[in-house]
């Protein structure tokens, strides 16, 4: 059989027969990510046919396993972790984005978020090691279940106004989120093929932020007719969040171990070497002396620091309750478009991977500077001592447009900034063990910055000072990321693992043969 023909059968591009397509299209940005992914595979198959390049023998796949969404494929697993984060962190983002957790007084939410980000800073760093020891299912299940408790604590607070439960739930969520994001980061950076990491990241980011979009609709719809007198969101709002978060917790049980995930060329995604607690402690401690991670610190610190300012002091101050929910729909929707834009740039703009990284950083820096300039112009119009009249999307007319566009742009920048960082991390190694530690370190530093940011707001630091601090921190991170890309990102596919996997080679086309080791995968050493 001809090579090109074999690839078309492998990915099953035939049109559906009077049935709903398996892949939903909830947004243009999500559809674009999938289209780019499919186009890349078609081009690869045609190029192989034109060049007549000799390919290694591949196992013959059955029709059920030859679809693009084969259960043990990297794409299917990235889609699954995207759905988990849609239900968990996505809904949490919608809850946080309302300002003060949907309460009129943000004090309880600020204290809970301080506890959350403090424990997340610790468990973010430890999460990579825990993931390597326990595996994905136990780690992700424990992490996602903590989101349900957090949403429930606000339901309790809505009735009894007791801050203690909210703060404890925030601390427990920090531990759980550290585990969840370490596992997610390991999967997202190690599963995709090296030349498609940006596309997979944008696909995940689109699904994940669809959770924020749907989550933003919940308070918008349930509180639409409650009027200006409404002090906080309804009980039904928190119950809606809890239902979605519970579904995400159950979905974690469908995630496969990395050693069972097989790429389209028949090779395993990672040459897993089983770890232990002692090994992980040593490897995690080494991260604090790793020059690559040290260059990443300013970007990681800045990447969640701006949430406090944007959620509490832009959305929470400028808009009324129902408009805040609507704004969140567009804030998280903007993230979907931003991730697709930067994902395409990081994968397809230049042949050189190093050049793609440099151009991506430059584009994000340019966009970021323009958006922060707009934020400065907006912030000069109000302060803590001169609070503005709250805007409503129906009644405020043209006065609503400017702040709304700014808040939308903040969402766009957040996705571009964080997707860029994930791409850089994914370019530093190619094995799940190393990347779980790298992403855990990133989330730990990110969360430490977030904890400080929430305390900054608790202590009533002027809005203008917070904006300037965010602008400076993001700007400082760009040249350091440029240095990291120049020194550490290579233009070939062989990437050295570090720590416990040091010296492992990750060939893009290792022959695989069908056996009895679960799905035809190679035995792992």
TrEMBL record:
Main location: membrane
Membrane-crossing residue ranges in chain numbering: 75-95, 115-134, 140-157, 164-183, 203-224, 236-256, 291-309, 329-346, 358-378, 399-425, 468-489
UniProt keyword Transmembrane helix, yes or no: yes
GO cellular component: membrane
Subcellular location: Membrane
Domain of life: Eukaryota
Bilayer topology term: Multi-pass membrane protein
Keywords: Membrane, Transmembrane, Transmembrane helix
A Pfam family that the UniProt record links to this protein: UNC-93
SUPFAM superfamilies: MFS general substrate transporter
Keyword DNA-binding: no
InterPro entries on file: Ion_channel_UNC-93, MFS_trans_sf, UNC-93-like_regulator
Family, similarity comment: Belongs to the major facilitator superfamily. Phosphate:H(+) symporter (TC 2.A.1.9) family.
Protein name: UNC93-like protein 1
Organism name: Rhododendron griersonianum
